[in-house]
Amino acid sequence: MSFNNLETLYRQVIMDHYKNPRNKGTIDGDEHLTVEMNNPTCGDRIHLQLKVRDGIVEDAKFTGEGCSISMSSASMMTQAVKGKTVEEALKLSDYFSDMVQGKDVDHEDLELGDIQALQGVSKFPARVKCATLSWKAMEKGIENNE
User: Fold this and answer.
1) How many helices and strands (H and E) does the chain possess?
2) How far apart are CA 12 and CA 81, in angstroms?
3) Residue 49 forms beta bridges with which residues?
């Protein structure tokens, strides 16, 4: 697949998650943790809820507002971490952060799914904070839960 076709495919994946976000909403009940974060430089805001039981992320949902990068990233992140152990979710977050910063990363042991579509963010340093906002919220929620 040519580079231009791959970029077009990635843009389509990002826009699909933006227009049809997965896991948007709230978790019922009170057995979850909640994190609110914002990116003051561009106005992105996220309200993330995680249900973690026995070291497994059982559910993840978000609400918020922001650009297509931040909202599609939140959609992808909630999909990626559901069913993962806390350690796996944090490892995936580290990988994602390195990927969008343009660092060389080894992902052979990780299931990337749609998050790979955001690797092009590395070409736009001002957008890295948009892409990582929900991931940082997830990290903060897990750290506060421990």
Assistant:
1) 4, 3
2) 22
3) 34, 61
